[in-house]
# Entry
Amino acid sequence: MAFNIDQIRSDFPILNQKVNGKPLIYFDNAATTQKPLPVIQRLTDYYLKENSNVHRGVHHLSQVATEIYENARNYVAEYIHAEESDEIVFTRGTTESINLLSRALVPWIEANDEILISAMEHHSNLVPWQQLCAERKAKLKIIPLNEDGSLDMNFLEKMLNPQVKLLAITHISNVLGTINPVEEIIRIAHEKGVPVLLDGAQGIAHSPVDVKASGVDFYTFSGHKIYAPMGIGVLYGRKTWLRRLPPYQFGGEMIDQVSFDRTTFNQLPYKYEAGTPNVSGALGLEAALRYVSEIGIDKIINYEEKLLTRATEKLEEIEGMRIIGRAKNKAAVLSFVVNGIHPYDLGTLLDQMGVAVRTGHHCAQPLIDMLGIPGTVRASFALYNTPEEVDVFAEAVKKAVAMLM
Ligand code: PMP
# Structure
């Protein structure tokens, strides 16, 4: 399918509004993306025609709901190239996926074991591991970054010693935009016998994902970052892992047999899906992935790259501008600070001009502290943004800087 920006924008009616009297320019896509009509329609159809609880009923609607829910799982598996759909666990999102795994790994981590993360992690891929390490008297080790915001691969290799039980790293940084060389990372880690988790919260929307080819052990993502509803996400786990790890929450759905004395657990993936799942969310996720797939992730990446280059070039013209994150391999995230101006003030003025950006530490406080800055302004792009919006944004930044200087 050709990349038709007018068609794409008409799929996102929310974009067609004014904010503070100015046409909305939505550049906060790394926080959450807008939803296209096919996704919204899928949710509506579900509640108009198909709503029922899954896996439990003999009646028609329950069987329909079960079938479409499981079809959504099959499609997610196909989209990320999982070998089997049992390896797809539906969760609330990246945060829950990582918490699930960090809890399931409790018995596997012993005193003085090490868990490696990088200095660019979101709190979601940091705090759960920090807590697990504290609980098990293990050590959380941090892989440093190069000046340009790329991962220090030499350090990474040196840090992979026999004590390391897991390498948990982001696919794409939500602050720096750095795309980590995940295939190489997985290969090096596996050579040392270390399993790898990738935080794909940003990766899913700005990169092809092939869990089979990359050999990654765990991949996590949130639907809302890729045009799907909030409250649905995925933990992909290699079957050999998920089979041997214990459940995370207990209750209905995740059981096989229950007596007052003991319980046996259900098979994968239900072992990890206690309680009533987010059926409509799963359907919305399927619709969103189909939408992306129909346009083509490669075309989207190519288009977003052009937006990023244009925005970077325009911002560089501004005096006092410092772009945060200069890695060669970068996705559609542009963080910056301007000398002498607080990011919050800049963000507030941009909002008055109709431009939605995010300011602050972006849930990566240790990284921001390490950089010695109060936070950044972050513009992040999606498939519905346009070069014209980038130009208006750059002019708005210029204007705001002039006002605040
Ligand atoms: N990791 C990264 C890299 C992210 O960008 C985000 C969302 N900002 C998360 C994890 C957490 O995702 P969620 O809030 O959807 O669980």
